[in-house]
UniProtKB/TrEMBL annotation, chain A:
<keyword id="KW-1133">Transmembrane helix</keyword>
<feature type="transmembrane region" description="Helical">
    <location>
        <begin position="95"/>
        <end position="114"/>
    </location>
</feature>
<feature type="transmembrane region" description="Helical">
    <location>
        <begin position="63"/>
        <end position="83"/>
    </location>
</feature>
<comment type="similarity">
    <text>Belongs to the binding-protein-dependent transport system permease family. CysTW subfamily.</text>
</comment>
<dbReference type="Pfam" id="PF00528">
    <property type="entry name" value="BPD_transp_1"/>
</dbReference>
<keyword id="KW-0813">Transport</keyword>
<feature type="transmembrane region" description="Helical">
    <location>
        <begin position="150"/>
        <end position="169"/>
    </location>
</feature>
<feature type="transmembrane region" description="Helical">
    <location>
        <begin position="12"/>
        <end position="34"/>
    </location>
</feature>
<keyword id="KW-0472">Membrane</keyword>
From TrEMBL, chain B:
<dbReference type="InterPro" id="IPR013611">
    <property type="entry name" value="Transp-assoc_OB_typ2"/>
</dbReference>
<dbReference type="Pfam" id="PF00005">
    <property type="entry name" value="ABC_tran"/>
</dbReference>
<dbReference type="GO" id="GO:0043190">
    <property type="term" value="C:ATP-binding cassette (ABC) transporter complex"/>
</dbReference>
<dbReference type="InterPro" id="IPR017871">
    <property type="entry name" value="ABC_transporter-like_CS"/>
</dbReference>
<dbReference type="InterPro" id="IPR003593">
    <property type="entry name" value="AAA+_ATPase"/>
</dbReference>
<feature type="domain" description="ABC transporter">
    <location>
        <begin position="8"/>
        <end position="239"/>
    </location>
</feature>
<dbReference type="Pfam" id="PF08402">
    <property type="entry name" value="TOBE_2"/>
</dbReference>
<dbReference type="InterPro" id="IPR050093">
    <property type="entry name" value="ABC_SmlMolc_Importer"/>
</dbReference>
<protein>
    <submittedName>
        <fullName>ABC transporter ATP-binding protein</fullName>
    </submittedName>
</protein>
């Protein structure tokens, strides 16, 4: 008791310190969201018509499905690329782990806009990728690599990579050296140690990274807008189009609300999953 | 359930880190089949480096390691067939007790049906059958230790390495585990190499002890020999309790030892280590064990006057500290009855059993 008292500030003081943040949070986050939900539900009287219309509309259904599919693939690709990087960081001496970590994190200091434009430079008809493919004789004419789903997935996975690598690295680093050593001494090969010990113990990091990349990708705007074409439009772009071009606030609000609900449900399922995970390890 | 323990031969083992740190400096020893060898030393003495080389987690800078007839020096750890018990047990936290014990069997390609029998047997050996489905985090320290043992012996390795494996347990549990491990070793005929900094543990469990200091093996002998006839000054000071008294060599005794005249007056007949060169007149240090000091009458042979500085009750005996006239402090053990007649600041006469204490040449520069 006495120890926790010494460590924490008194109730009123800590409340006072949090208050500014709380006010900002209430006014610029909670209030607009409530307003937005209001817009989607009242026209001007209470109605579910907007939801009925959006959910019944083929076009929005396709966009929803595409957004989920693309985000899942982004998370899967980021995991595929990010896990080996995190594992390399774990097995490297501290200096090299720091260098790799810096290489992963420094791109975060440049804006998403710049990183996405870099991909358009790489993937355009006379860009670096086409030049390499042609010089290797793989194709004769330049391919159109931009403005499709695959380009969006690749670029978005690149943008999201740090959010995959860091949680996985954290959970890998929490595994004591004695465990893989014990595995080896018990006759397991390096591969078996990875499969039976390292991989299962890094599951919390994998789940956290996957969820983070998936959820953020669901609402991603910049990369899909720059790299994707009209045929690969995603939800955030659609919402922006509804509001800024068609001035259809109700529709934009409804799409936003549906996205919010989807993310909330995902997080709920995930936290359940994590709790079960913890129980299992106890 | 019995198998033959392996012999182990370590020859000219050197382990250096970089150019300046030599953790193990030319270690040579053999371990007999079924023997319990402790490697005892303070932290940084190189004992863990030897163990890591034996297990295969570290590559020796030079030297060879044989287990049985096999030269394992260049084998990876998973091909050595050695059971290792780590300091913190290293149980896999995401597997049940049963899955942990099954792991080495699974790695050897045993089917579930085959391994079931072995796992149950191992569980029974360490009396954990009821806890087989628990997760490691649900077990007490002693139970985790037993799971680690069961896991390490389930694949019948001929050699078991233990790295400070009991140090995380409290005293009572540690003593229970010491007995259990010894019983298990006798039953299975295992060869055990046990690394520890706890000399009581090493003295009570081992067939032989290798005492290490600064990367070198100072002495490798049975516990009673280590205690009664330490080969070097380091061993004399590190193993068991002793008081160090400085003096000079006065002459030799009929038993082949030396007589040391103490700087504070009086003299003690001592034994010497075989390789120690002690010339008459040279400075020497006497390592006096409390066991060899008794209260005596004034003026007797081998007596010293000492002022009692402190007494502390320890159950069957009372430990006291006496101070000689030149300020040297001596640990004394009194029986509780005797202790009642001695008060603090009393000057008593201490009689030393002749020919029991060890004398070594004083350290360069003298003390």
């Amino acid at each position: 008791m006495a120890q926790s008292d010494r460590r924490s500030l008194s109730g009123p003081l800590s409340f006072g310190l949090v208050l500014p943040l709380l006010i900002i949070f209430l006014f610029v986050f909670c209030w607009p969201i409530i307003k937005l939900l209001g817009v989607s539900l009242f026209d001007p009287a209470f109605t579910l018509d907007h939801y009925r219309e959006v959910l019944g509309n083929d076009f929005t259904q396709v966009i929803f499905l595409r957004t989920f599919r693309v985000s899942l693939l982004v998370a899967a690709l980021a995991l595929l690329i990010g896990y080996p990087i995190a594992n390399l960081m774990r097995s490297s001496p501290p200096f090299w782990a720091m260098v790799i970590g810096a290489c992963v994190l420094i791109p975060l200091w440049t804006s998403v806009l710049v990183r996405s434009f870099a991909w358009t430079v790489l993937l355009q008809r006379n860009g670096a990728v086409n030049a390499i493919l042609q010089s290797l004789g793989i194709t004769n004419a330049p391919l159109s690599l931009l403005y499709n789903e695959i380009a969006v997935i690749v670029a978005q996975a690149h943008v999201m990579l740090p959010f995959m690598v860091m949680p996985i690295y954290q959970s890998l680093r929490a595994i004591p050296d004695e465990l893989p050593r014990a595995g080896l001494s018990l006759g397991a090969s390096n591969l078996a140690v990875f499969w039976h010990i390292i991989l299962p113990l890094s599951r919390p990091g994998v789940l956290a990274g996957f969820l983070m990349v998936f959820v953020v990708s669901l609402g991603a705007f910049v990369t899909p807008a720059l790299i994707g074409g009209p045929s690969s439009m995603m939800l955030a772009t659609a919402i922006s189009t509804e509001i800024t071009e068609k001035f259809n606030w109700a529709r934009g609000a409804t799409l936003s609300a549906l996205l919010l609900i989807a993310v909330a449900v995902l997080l709920l399922i995930f936290s359940r999953f994590m709790q079960l995970n913890k129980l299992e390890q106890k | 359930m019995s198998n033959m323990g392996a012999t182990v031969r370590v020859s000219q083992l050197v382990k250096s880190y970089g150019e300046h740190v030599t953790a193990v400096d030319n270690a040579n020893f053999e371990v007999r089949s079924g023997e319990f060898l402790s490697i005892l030393g303070p932290s940084g003495s190189g004992k863990t480096s030897i163990l890591m080389c034996l297990a295969g987690f570290e590559v020796p800078t030079a030297g060879r390691i044989h287990i049985g007839d096999r030269d394992v020096t260049d084998l990876p750890p998973n091909k050595r067939e050695i059971g290792v018990i780590f300091q913190k047990y290293a149980l896999f936290p995401h597997m049940t007790v049963r899955e942990n014990i099954r792991f080495p069997l699974k790695m050897r390609g045993m089917t579930r049906a085959q391994s079931d029998v072995v796992v149950e047997e191992a569980l029974a050996t360490v009396r954990l059958t009821e806890l087989a489905n628990r997760m490691p985090a649900q077990l007490s320290g002693g139970q985790q230790q037993r799971v680690a043992i069961a896991r390490a012996i389930s694949f019948r390795p001929p050699l078991l390495l233990m790295d400070e494996s009991l140090s995380a347990l409290d005293k009572k549990l540690r003593e229970e585990m010491q007995i259990e491990i010894k019983e298990l070793q006798r039953k299975l005929g295992l060869t055990i190499i046990f690394v520890t900094h706890d000399q009581e543990e090493a003295l009570s469990m081992s067939d032989r002890i290798a005492v290490m200091s600064r990367g070198r093996i100072e002495q490798i002998e049975a516990p009673d020999v280590i205690y009664a006839a330490p080969a070097t000054r380091f061993v004399a000071g590190f193993v068991g309790e002793s008081s160090q008294i400085s003096g000079r060599i006065a002459g030799t005794t009929e038993q082949g030892g030396v007589s040391v005249s103490l700087d504070g007056g009086g003299s003690i007949d001592c034994r010497t280590a075989p390789h120690d060169r002690l010339e008459i007149g040279a400075p020497a240090t006497v390592y006096l064990r409390p066991d060899h000091v008794t209260l005596g009458a004034a003026g007797g042979p081998d007596t010293m006057a000492a002022k009692i500085l402190s007494k502390s009750f320890g159950g069957s005996a009372v430990s006291a500290i006496g101070e000689l006239s030149n300020g040297t402090r001596i640990a004394i053990r009194l029986d509780p009855e005797e202790a009642k007649s001695v008060a603090l600041d009393d000057v008593v006469h201490l009689s030393v059993q002749p020919g029991q204490s060890m004398a070594f040449a004083a350290e360069e520069g003298g003390r």
